[in-house]
């Protein structure tokens, strides 16, 4: 009688074909994830551009209907059309065509987010020209006893400003003045006089609104300037290139945000400074540079970390 045979199974590895198929599948999945991520980012940027364009259109409609800019309308027009009464000081509804903030001095400075810049959102939402509804701020101030307003206070930042479609903690704010060469008086009364007189929408991150001498403004806490940029260099460049000239210090879109009393170039400490061609070396926290070549125009720093640095804010003229 023959002994039962035991089947011996050979251990086999993957064939080259099988490995190739797995690698192809992994590549397709990874590629799909990257493509999806890029599509999402592109969608956010497109939504941000659309949001700003809608706000610009809303301003035009408002001005055509009421003969004044939201926030800036004087008390006569406000009373006629049942808007909140305006104040008597500059920056509280002075009708000069420039949306400027009000300080307790009283003086007007474009970046201060009290008075006209916050009343802007109340006025324009009151007549249904934007989706959001704002009714907290007053033309004469912020209508709050808080010295610091954040995302978690009551009222919070969302009671005064619409969230930017780009996300990333950004809001859309209104300011004026732009870059002003004020010499040693940056932010002082002379800056208001020498302001470029242009109104801007800014997409900017605001850790808080803080007060000093009863002045409410963006991004100044404890005597130091807090960072304003919450847009990546690549996003800022793509947005600028799509709707303007793709350059950070020229045109209708600039890498600038409101801070303290006037504007500041993103990723720098240069307040009240006109466009410049000083040799600027790029680094990980730079929004723009000119490759350290004196006289060369500034470019978005997309060569630094692939433009991934969250270093920029953007201002749009209107």
Please tag this protein with its features.
318 residues, alpha+beta, four-stranded antiparallel sheet, three-stranded antiparallel sheet, 5 helices, 17% strand, globular
Q: Can you tell me about this structure?
A:
The protein is of the alpha+beta class. The chain has one domain (20-317). It is 27% helix and 17% strand. It has helices at 16-66, 75-80, 116-126, 189-194, 233-243; strands at 101-102, 108-109, 148-149, 170-176, 199-205, 209-212, 215-218, 220-221, 224-225, 231-232, 253-254, 256-259, 262-265, 288-289, 299-300, 310-312, 314-317. Helix 1 crosses helix 5 (233-243). The longest helix has 51 residues, at 16-66. 43% of the residues are buried.
Principal-axis shape: globular
N/C terminus separation: 101 Å
Mean of pLDDT: 83
DSSP E strands, number: 17
Spans where pLDDT lies below 50 across 5 or more residues: 213-227
Strand order of the largest sheet: 4-5-17-11
């Amino acid at each position: 009688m023959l002994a039962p045979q035991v089947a011996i199974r050979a251990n086999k590895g993957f064939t080259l074909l099988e490995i190739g198929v797995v690698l192809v599948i992994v590549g397709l999945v990874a590629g799909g994830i990257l493509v999806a991520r890029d599509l999402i980012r592109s969608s956010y940027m497109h939504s941000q551009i659309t949001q700003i364009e809608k706000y610009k259109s809303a301003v035009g409609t408002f001005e055509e209907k009421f003969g004044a800019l939201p926030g800036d309308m004087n008390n006569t027009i406000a009373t006629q059309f049942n808007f909140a009464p305006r104040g008597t000081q500059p920056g509280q509804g002075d009708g000069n065509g420039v949306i400027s903030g009000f300080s307790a001095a009283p003086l007007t400075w474009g970046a201060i987010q009290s008075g006209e810049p916050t009343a802007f959102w109340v006025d324009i939402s009151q007549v249904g020209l934007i989706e959001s509804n704002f009714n907290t701020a007053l033309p004469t101030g912020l209508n709050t006893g808080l010295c610091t307003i954040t995302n978690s206070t009551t009222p919070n930042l969302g009671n005064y400003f619409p969230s930017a479609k780009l996300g990333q903690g950004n809001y859309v704010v209104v300011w004026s003045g732009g870059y002003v060469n004020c010499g040693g008086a940056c932010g002082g009364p002379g800056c208001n006089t020498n302001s470029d007189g242009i109104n801007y929408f800014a997409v900017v991150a605001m850790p808080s609104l803080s007060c000093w001498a009863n002045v409410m403004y963006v991004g100044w806490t404890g005597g130091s300037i807090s960072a304003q940029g919450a847009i990546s260099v690549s996003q800022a460049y793509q947005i600028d290139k799509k709707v303007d000239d793709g350059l950070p210090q020229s045109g209708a879109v600039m890498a600038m945000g409101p801070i303290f009393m006037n504007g500041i170039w993103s990723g720098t400490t240069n307040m009240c400074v006109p466009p410049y061609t000083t040799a600027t070396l790029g680094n990980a926290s730079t929004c723009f540079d000119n490759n350290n070549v004196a006289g060369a125009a500034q470019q978005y720093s997309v060569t630094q970390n692939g433009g991934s640095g969250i270093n920029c804010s953007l201002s749009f003229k209107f």
